[in-house]
Amino acid sequence: MDIKRVGDTPWYFTAVYASPDPMKRRELWDELKEFASTHNKPWLIAGDFNDTRFPSERNKSCNETNRRSARFNAWIDDMQLIEVEFSGAAHTWSRGVTPETRQSGRLDRALCNGEWGVRFETAKGLLKLEAKLRKELDEVMEKEEILWYQKARVEWLKNGDRNTSFFHLSTVIKQWRNKVVAIRDANDSWIFDKELVKAHFVNFFTKLFTEESYPHHSVIPNDIFQELPVRE
What we know:
By secondary structure, the protein is of the alpha+beta class. About 40% of the residues lie in helices and about 15% in strands. The chain has five helices and nine strands, in the order E-E-H-E-H-E-E-E-E-H-H-E-E-H.
């Protein structure tokens, strides 16, 4: 649409509803790029682009979605388009009713060219900065996810879950399992105090391995580990 209003600069508006077919989307990107080469007025493009720009814009990612995002971002950069700030839900599309089948993403957005005028230069600069910082944040979060994934030593990972809290909790649980927080004394009473637990261990083994009470061969358990022959 060619928008004209008395007293204002004319501008173009394009409503987008991109195909779910990646090849057809690329044809649309080429058509819009060709239009931009012959029109230099302010231009706003908005709608369902059926593509995402960053991993945070999807609840699940894979190599294919990452490649499509890279192509989409390359097209935006080549067109010198700027993302318009928005408010509302982070993801504008979803389907599936269970955690296993649920998919969601931010497919809707608005882009404008650099011809909107000097009055928008500051805002466009901030939007560019936001895009740069968002990309850096995604990279940091991905590295953090890999770190906790390695620490948790899990054997599976759903693509794009970015469930860092899960991996963190996994390592914490492992630490809990590896800690002695209480023991029972000779009277079958629980000892929780850290210093008392340490003292109980020291006293037990001191008494066990003193010269006077060194354990006789007959009292050492012989039904747990493989027995060794007695040396003559």
